[in-house]
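Please, structure for the following, as tokens.
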Amino acid sequence: MRHGKKNNHLGRKTAHRKAMLANMACSLIEHKRINTTVAKAKALKQFVEPLVTKSKEDTTHNRRIVFARLRQKDAVTALFRDVAVKVGDRPGGYTRIIKLGNRLGDNADMALIELVDYNETYNVGKATKKKSTRRSRRGAGAASAPAAVASVDAVKEEE
């Protein structure tokens, strides 16, 4: 029976799989996007998202937990210094997988995995988007009345 065995073994032994995912996660943190197969991208997403969540709170304990998984000091410092600041307000979903089609040599299904907040082409509309507020009928007249009184008071003070 295979109850509770969710992880994809990716055709590798445990040590090889963990080392590969750690190296891929370090590359993702360093370069902000990498090309890989879809299966590896999905496994990497499950590997790296809890680490990004841990990096949002910069404590010694969280740094040690993340370092135990990543095994590269430069990647840990980049994660806590740069990436955590950029994704601090996001509640989850720090990576995006974009399918690219099949690889030419062996027809493997390829994907691009990237950190969400670092892609400017998808974030162009969000940067310029203005927050809109809903106004009720009752609030429209009441909200403009104090502003009008304030402008009249400012004119009187100038005289």
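The CA atoms of residues 90 and 156 lie 47 Å apart. The chain has a mean pLDDT of 87.
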